Design the sequence.
């Protein structure tokens, strides 16, 4: 069996990544970005649920006909 190497960041790497993100975007913009990401995730999940509902309705209408 072949082994696949997977890199997992440690605490030091995570701190460095967070500092770089903070420097790039600034402290004021980070909460706005997090809020936007949360809204888009919520909208995506809502769209997925709506798509499943439409598929179920389409299946039911084909069965009735």
Sequence:
């Amino acid at each position: 069996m072949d082994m696949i190497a997977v890199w997992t960041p440690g605490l030091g790497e995570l701190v460095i990544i967070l500092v770089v993100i903070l420097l790039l975007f600034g402290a004021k913009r980070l909460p706005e970005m997090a809020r936007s990401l949360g809204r888009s995730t919520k909208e995506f999940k809502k769209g997925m649920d709506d798509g499943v509902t439409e598929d179920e309705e389409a299946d039911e209408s084909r069965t009735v006909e």
Summary: The mean pLDDT is 84. The CA atoms of residues 30 and 36 lie 10 Å apart. Helices lie at 11-25, 29-64. The chain is about 80% helix and 0% strand.
